[in-house]
Design goal:
The complex is a heterodimer of chains A (about 260) and B (about 425). Helix content of chain A is about 40%, strand content about 5%. With about 260 residues, chain A is mainly alpha-helical. Chain B contains 15 helices and 2 strands. A two-stranded antiparallel ribbon of chain B has the order 1-2. The two termini of chain B are about 30 Å apart. The radius of gyration of chain B is 24 Å and the shape is globular. In chain B, about 40% of the residues are buried. The chains are: A mainly alpha (about 260), B mainly alpha (about 425). At the A-B interface, α1 and α7 of A face α4, α5, α10 and α13 of B.
């Protein structure tokens, strides 16, 4: 009964795929699917969007959210020159040392330093944010169900709370956040909040899209290389499958 | 055939073989090893499992060169591998998805054994060694999943180690021993790393025994009948080496698609959040390959005769695996292949559906109908092995078996064409 067998194999693969990722109880609606340049087999990051997204992160998000797994030098991958990176890093102070006198000292950040966090520690971050801890953003786009779609949905999902909804003090209503109460005030509030260096009109959806692209890159900086290598590996294996199948047929022909 | 040449190489080989029969053994086990001529593609999964084991060990050894098994640094060290180690992302995605592929292959391999009765006389020990390998794989995979020290690592470790607290009297002592303290913490991570590195080599040793047992009586085959003569078998090399190579390429394609294009599909996003002992994730879900057991574990929602439901659940979960050890003696039918067993063939597919159902249940929060479905599926799992398997062997009338593999599959012979 080959059809039943095929149906079962199909079912097994569906269960496999749905098993651990798609099955979580959803309090909030599923984030709507967005178009991303990095989706699909040959998807790559859109360099211009990455740079615009970096600008949004720098001017808006970085006030509260750290990016601790990303180093300034990594910005070379999204098209910044060494001088630009040096200049940008030098705006931040890091504690280094001890020096020959045994003293810790402050120095400007270098390209090899990781992004300097906005708060020295979690307690300081909470103290400055009504007790809420802004999560580190380095892996955000991989660490939530829905991935990039979720990040975009949160950035754009702020609404007035429904009349019967009891919103706690210092909380905001967000359609896509579990429980709908989020401690983060709406980050993107007005068109033109950021003045893009490339002249793109900074609408709220545009800024959300760009910063999500940047965060997807921050979470998975090797995606472009991975897709390129994957295409080659798949092509190689398709050829190998053909060659080995032909060889198998020939060898087995001796005894058929 | 012994090496008979007179050249220098032949003389060196003879010198070695006289003292250590290395080449002779390879020759014997590969070239002369008679293999049934009718093995179908389901027989590819044994060699695939061996190859993925090697892939896991090699990628794992290199990952261990860059990983830091310390609770405040483990998560960051994994991110460093992903970002700064040359091709570290590739190594880690191979290792991560390799675990899923390993289980997928082994599960297919096991169900192939169930369908064609490969566990029956005279291959009972071969089968039992396979169950040992499965248990070792599960322990290894569980401890490996803890190493990145993400949220699901930490809470998965907490839930699974806590299962042992259900053991009467010694429960809490066992859990403390596993943890190396009074909670999942740095000592837990250290010992899991140590054991995660050790167990794969134990698996290699048991695989060696599995192969020795296999070569004692040779492979079973889709007809489930013994070799009766030279017309029934062909040399392993080149016929099955080339067939295995072809199968390997197809498998590598599937593997590559996961590694390069959907590396995180089978993982849990929560594990990209560093472990936080103060914050329980909304749902603690194991990796897909543990979901059926997880469903069995959670199926017990009530105490029986004063025995706590947790203890029964844990017992059921371990029994679901230990049961496989006695399967060769539970099965009362002497016919191996389901091809000739009309009733067994049907309940085999019901078991497949049952296990997939358990997997579905394990992935969902235990509420409403999910609980009932999980209980029914758990009951059916045990009903299959403990009642149906012994009973059907007695009442079923198998179809007549062909007199030999050769007569059944060679073109000259008319008759049942096997299951290819």
């Amino acid at each position: 009964m080959p059809t039943l067998r095929h149906a079962l194999i199909g079912a097994a693969l569906v269960v496999l795929a749905a098993g651990s990722s798609g099955a979580r109880a959803q309090e909030a609606p599923t984030p709507p699917r967005q178009q991303w340049s990095f989706e699909g087999f040959l998807g790559t990051y859109d360099q211009a969007a990455l740079q615009r997204g970096f600008q949004v992160y720098k001017e808006v998000c970085s006030a509260c959210h750290a990016l601790k797994h990303v180093a300034y030098r990594d910005l070379a991958e999204i098209g910044y020159t060494d001088d630009q990176i040096k200049g940008f890093a030098a705006q931040f102070q890091v504690t280094d040392g001890p020096n020959d006198q045994g003293q810790m000292y402050q120095r400007p950040a270098k390209p090899s330093d990781m992004f300097v966090p906005p708060f020295p520690n979690d307690q300081a971050a909470r103290a400055a944010n009504n007790g809420a801890l802004p999560p580190d953003m380095s892996l955000l786009a991989k660490a939530r169900d829905g991935g990039s779609d979720y990040v975009y949905a949160i950035a754009t999902g702020f609404k007035d709370a429904p009349a019967d909804f009891k919103l706690n003090p210092n909380m905001y209503y967000n359609e896509y956040f579990a429980g709908h109460q989020i401690a983060m005030p709406p980050p993107l509030t007005a068109d033109g909040q950021v003045t893009y260096a490339d002249g793109t009109k900074a609408t709220i959806p545009q800024m959300a899209h760009d910063v999500t692209t940047f965060l997807a890159w921050a979470a998975e900086p090797n995606l472009d290389e991975r897709h390129r290598m994957g295409a080659k590996v798949v092509l190689f294996l398709l050829v190998a499958i053909g060659v080995f199948y032909a060889a198998k047929r020939r060898i087995w022909a001796r005894i058929h | 055939m012994p090496v008979t040449g007179t050249g220098r190489t032949s003389r060196i080989i003879r010198w070695i073989d006289y003292r250590l029969p290395f080449v002779a053994t390879l020759e014997h086990e590969l070239n002369e090893y008679p293999t049934p001529r009718n093995l179908n593609y389901w027989w590819n999964f044994g060699s695939l499992a061996g190859i993925i084991l090697v892939i896991m060990i090699v990628s794992g050894i290199v990952l261990a060169m860059h990983y830091t098994p310390e609770s405040t640094m483990a998560f960051d060290s994994v991110e460093r591998i992903m970002r700064d180690v040359n091709y570290g992302w590739l190594l880690r995605y191979i290792h991560m998805n390799g675990a899923s592929m390993f289980f997928l292959i082994v599960y297919i391999h096991i169900f192939r054994g169930l369908y064609y009765g490969s566990y029956k006389y005279p291959r009972e020990l071969l089968w039992m060694l396979g169950v040992v390998i499965l248990l070792l794989m599960m322990a290894t995979a569980f401890m490996g999943y803890v190493l990145p020290w993400g949220q699901m690592s930490y809470w998965g470790a907490t839930v699974i180690t806590n299962l042992f607290s259900a053991v009467p009297i010694f429960g809490q002592k066992i859990v403390t021993l596993l943890w190396g303290g009074f909670t999942v913490s740095n000592p837990t991570l250290n010992r899991f790393f140590s054991l995660h590195y050790l167990l794969p080599f134990v698996i290699v040793a048991v695989v060696g025994l599995h192969l020795i047992a296999l070569h004692q009586h040779g492979s079973n085959n889709p007809l489930g009948i013994d070799h009766r003569g030279p017309q029934d078998s062909i040399p392993f090399h080149p016929y099955y080496t080339i067939k295995d190579m072809f199968g390997l390429m197809v498998f590598l394609l599937v593997f590559a698609i996961f590694v390069f294009f959907e590396p995180n599909l089978l993982g849990d996003p929560q594990n990209y959040i560093p472990a936080n002992p103060l914050q329980t994730p909304p749902d603690i879900v194991p990796e897909w390959y543990f979901l059926p057991y997880y469903a069995i574990l959670r199926s017990m929602t009530f105490n029986v005769l004063g025995i706590p439901s947790k203890l029964i659940g844990v017992t059921l979960m371990f029994s679901s695996l230990l049961l496989l050890f006695v399967l060769p003696w539970l099965d009362t039918s002497r016919v191996r292949s389901a091809t000739f067993r009309p009733i067994y063939k049907k309940i085999f597919w019901l078991l497949v559906i049952d296990v997939l159902t358990l997997g579905y249940v394990g992935a969902h929060p235990p509420a409403g109908t999910i609980v009932v479905v999980g209980q029914v599926a758990t009951f059916y799992y045990f009903f299959h092995f403990l009642i149906l398997i012994p009973l059907i062997g007695k009442i079923e009338r198998p179809r007549p078996l062909p007199t030999s593999i050769g007569t059944a599959v060679l073109p000259a012979a008319a008759g049942a064409a096997g299951d290819e």
